[in-house]
Amino acid sequence: MTADDREPLVADHALEFPGGYTRSVGPVIGRFLTELRDGRLVGVRTASGGVLFPPAEYDPDGEAVTDEYVEVGPGGTVTSWSWVSRPRAVHPLDRPFAWALIRPDGAGTAILHALDVGVFEPGAEPPKALRTGMRVRPKWRAERTGSIKDIESFRPDITMITAPSRAEYRLNAGRALTRFLTGVSEGRFLGHRCDVCGKVYVPMRGLCPVDGVPTTEEVEVPDTGTVTTFAVNNIPDPRAPEVPFVSAYILLDGSDIALLALVAGVPADQVRMGMRVRAAWRPREEWGRTMENVKWFEPTGEPDVPFDSIKDYL
Amino acid sequence: MTTDVAVVAFAQTKHTGEDAGLTEVELLAPVISEIKQTTGLNRFGFTCSGSLDYLAGAPFSFVSALDTVGAWPPISESHVEMDGAWALYEAWVRLQHGDVDTALVYGFGKSSQGSLREIMTLQLDPYYLAPLGPDQVSLAALQARAFLDAGHKEDDLRAVAARSRAAGRDNPYALDLPDPGDEGYEVAPLRPYDCAPITDGAAAVVLAAGDRARELCANPAWIRGIDHRIEAHSLGARDLSRSESAALAAEKAGARDVEVAELHAQFSHEELILRAAIGLPDDVPVNPSGGPLAANPVMATGLIRIGEAASWIHRGRARRTLGHASSGPCLQHNLVCVLEA
């Protein structure tokens, strides 16, 4: 035996009838294809009164059908489906799609066709909207020839629209917030103390929402505080360093109302109620009259504050 | 009044999951030699084979296969472009004539040479189905969806695949496939392990009638009932969640009180649909060989089901068994064969 004998001897081979077979369709299938070319779906009445669709010369029980054709659809219901996440060369769509059995309204039986439920990446899982019972309609080709492919695919009925909405404004921060953000631009947190109840509000509002009186006594509080409560976010946000990130209510020392900020510098699953934190400021040269001067709050490493001392601020 | 006919011998290749470099004829020849040796027969009253020319893309490939039998002087021979199980049915009918008392039946297929999923599209109706190019797995997945919608779970399918693959690893003739892993969908809701593997292989059976069967085999597996039924080709005209044709074939073949069943289920949900249609109780083992999910030499797979079912009786390990074969998309056509010691 020579080395060549041990190598597999393999050749490409194709089996094809060039141009395709010529096939007579007969009167029943011919009627269906002719109507299809005109953009109509027709079934045929069976001897027992049902509508066989797509039409055949005999119903599944072997009875010859009548010569009465019945327009069905175009709306129909999916009776079963399979999801092709990686289409093959012979498939009618080159992106993920479903095969479906579709029973048009007025028909007793279903047709197999491709169901285009939208644009998906190769390998996508079946979309949730794809369900048995889904309502669909044919998408007709503009140029029809009398072939089952005159229907490009079926498409779901419209059940939802996207409604863009946008309005533009120029917002003024107002007197109190302007004063607060001016403080932030200097690296300070400013608030007001209420003359009546004595509570300190950071940022200041210019009034005490408890007592309904104006406030004017300015108080500066430090940039350290305590996490009262927090949430772990898994949706990316341009302000957060990574996903998941933590947004927290932080009670600044000396303040009586918590403000909402990001917490970072600690894994999300290690953030705790009662954790002590300090503001992480951006470089001073980047400061402006904005809370963006503070990137987020980071743990100070001090012991946690007991729950009792924050329970009134939740 | 029917003539008693028995399966007296069964042989199969050690099936491969890839092209072993053999032609269909080279694949088949050792199986024919083995079964001639087992029975001591060199000539048969009738010979019938099942194969599919489209697998190799060559017309009359079954004629070349006759070289393995030895057909000169001319023999009485026939062929079906179907699974070998239907060749067995034809041979059983031929033996009813009573003028011959032995028949050789074989099936073979190399599905590694082409794209089986697309080759099977060629069997579909050319007006409504074939132009769309729905492949075999896509259509099977439609049936799986209908089955799941009728109240079953994907985990039920996975359990069938896991049991079949484990059994296949214990069967020297089947492929050595791992337990189902964490695999994405092939065509949802089917995952790769829910689909029978591409397999090359061949199988042969010898049938004999009456006393001739008793001479040739210590424990002949008598065919007590055999029937096949077909339903509508249009998938949209059928209830895909069950198999009326399998139920009817089982009823006509007298499929009751069997101890073991071998089912031609090429997809995991098909086994569950067939089990219900045939009416097999939960305690009847199905596909202890691993079944088609562990080895699927197309055109021999159904014949192997009958051969495996007969082997239980040949070995004296069961008294009544069942072999099933299927053809067409989504279990369109079903054959049930009940065997008895």
Give structural notes.
The complex is a heterodimer of chains A (314) and B (341). Chain A folds into three domains: 26-156, no CATH class; 174-221, no CATH class; 222-314, no CATH class. Chain A has three helices and 18 strands. Chain A has helices at 3-6, 26-37, 174-185, and strands spanning 41-45, 51-52, 69-72, 76-84, 97-104, 111-115, 135-140, 151-156, 189-193, 200-201, 207-208, 213-214, 217-221, 224-233, 245-252, 259-263, 276-281, 294-299. In chain B, helix 7 (154-169) packs across helix 10 (268-278). The two termini of chain B are 20 Å apart. Chain B has a nine-stranded mixed β-sheet. The mean pLDDT of chain B is 95. With 341 residues, chain B is α/β, with parallel strands linked by helices. The interface between A and B is large, with 44 and 40 residues.
Unreliable stretches of chain A (pLDDT < 50, length at least 5) are none
**What sort of overall outline of chain B do the alpha carbons produce when their principal axes are compared?**
globular
Q: Approximately what portion of the residues of chain B adopt beta-strand conformation?
A: 15-25%
Overall geometry of chain A:
elongated
Which two chains share the most extensive interface? A-B, 44 and 40 residues
Largest sheet of chain B: 9 strands, mixed
Low-confidence stretches of chain B: none
DSSP helix count of chain A? 3
The number of helical segments of chain B is: 11
Kindly name the structural category of chain A: mainly beta
Report the CATH C-level class of the largest domain in chain B: Alpha Beta
Keywords:
heterodimer, A: 314 residues, mainly beta, 3 domains, five-stranded antiparallel beta sheet, 3 helices, elongated, B: 341 residues, alpha/beta, Peroxisomal Thiolase, Chain A, domain 1, 2 domains, nine-stranded mixed beta sheet, 11 helices
Summary?
The complex is a heterodimer of chains A (314) and B (341). Chain A has 314 residues and is mainly beta. Chain A is built from three helices and 18 strands.
